[in-house]
Amino acid sequence: MSGSIGSDGSVAAGGSSDGAQSITELVEAVRSLSERVAQLEAELAQRRAQNPGVPEDVAIAISAAVAAFLGHRAKIKQMHYRTGQAYAQQGRVVVQAHLNTQRPR
């Protein structure tokens, strides 16, 4: 099977029509996936613009709390701003697990 793909995505077959059809299908699939990736990248950029990260005053408060706890000034290397409920849920799991492990008297 010999064929070539033009710059516009067209397929020129040099032999079998089945081979040309499968190449055309592959080109269409790649084009569709490329459009989807572009759409997702645009959506990601929009979400990052809406939520730029941790506010500076929150970072200062966290830094002060860490310094007070450790007894010296620590360098914060990375901080993530969480908007979901996973952190709160994880905290409840830890507390409830601790309450369930106490033995009755």
List the helices and strands and how they pair.
Blueprint lengths: L2 E3 L5 E3 L3 H34 L5 H15 L15 H15 L5
Antiparallel strand pairs: 1-2
Can you tag this structure with a few keywords?
elongated; mainly alpha; 3 helices; 105 residues
Walk me through the structure.
The chain has helices at residues 17-50, 56-70, 86-100, and strands at 3-5, 11-13. By secondary structure, the protein is mainly alpha-helical. It folds into two domains: 3-50; 56-100, no CATH class. Strand 1 and strand 2 form a beta hairpin. The longest helix is centred in the N-terminal third of the chain and has 34 residues, at 17-50. The chain is elongated. The mean pLDDT is 77.
Task: State the gist of this model.
The protein is mainly α and about 100 residues long. It has three helices and two strands.
Task: Indicate the proportion of strand residues.
Answer: 5-15%
Main sheet summary: 2 strands, antiparallel
Count of β-strands: 2
The oligomeric state of the chains shown is single chain
**SSE pattern, N- to C-terminal:** EEHHH
What structural category characterises the helix and strand content? Answer: mainly alpha
Helix content: 55-70%
Which spans have pLDDT < 50 for at least 5 consecutive residues?
Answer: none
pLDDT averaged over residues:
77
Please indicate the count of domains: 2
End-to-end gap = 81 Å
Strand order of the largest sheet: 1-2
